[in-house]
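Q: Convert this sequence to structure tokens.
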Amino acid sequence: MEAVAIVTILALGQFILFSIQVGSMRGKHGVKAPAIEGHPEFERTFRVQQNTMEQLVAFVPALWIFAYLVNPLWGAGMGLVFIIGRFIYRSSYIKDPDARGMGFTITFIPTAVMLAWSLIVAVMKYF
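A:
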């Protein structure tokens, strides 16, 4: 389970990094809090951070449930794919929001797989 803890910390650290980048863009472009609109570069950076927060809501419980029910090392591996996908999503979205698809897909698939697989295993164990 230590590998799952490490991946969780890395994913949360990535979110903190994205949050710091939002603050940096606020300063760079003079977007005063609590405004969430302003310069396009700020808006794209903010949306990446917000989308990452939304994805973490499903990812973190999926990761821990999967690790408990299925396999912690497989979960940690899928968690690393999630983190890589978030970096790809960030770099592509900031350049061109229309190009975010691959990064989003790389992020979404591990979460969906872990949730579905965990549900199947839980149902099989219950019945």
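The chain has a mean pLDDT of 98.
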